[in-house]
Amino acid sequence: MKYLKINATLITALIERWRPETHTFHMRCGECAITLQDVSVLLGLRVDRAPLIGPTNLDWADLCEELLGVRPQEGELQGSVVKLSWLAHHFSQLNNHDGDVQQL
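Request: output the structure for the sequence above.
Response:
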């Protein structure tokens, strides 16, 4: 997903209208409710094709090593969550890699 700027006023307005009993937004008469198309436009997601799905039973340490080049040690990875201190330790300095976008 691309970088998304958060609109605090919009979020506050939606929170005020959320009803947990029905899991819906209650709007005044004449106002619009948020639709799937609205979400698609705001987030830039496609909603007119097959859903994006895939397996989640991955070896997360292997995936980190494949994508980041470094394997987290025991205790630095819990499920699919890696500790921020581990990321900061290994990736606090990023080199330019001579302009190689793929390597960066």
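The chain has a mean pLDDT of 78.
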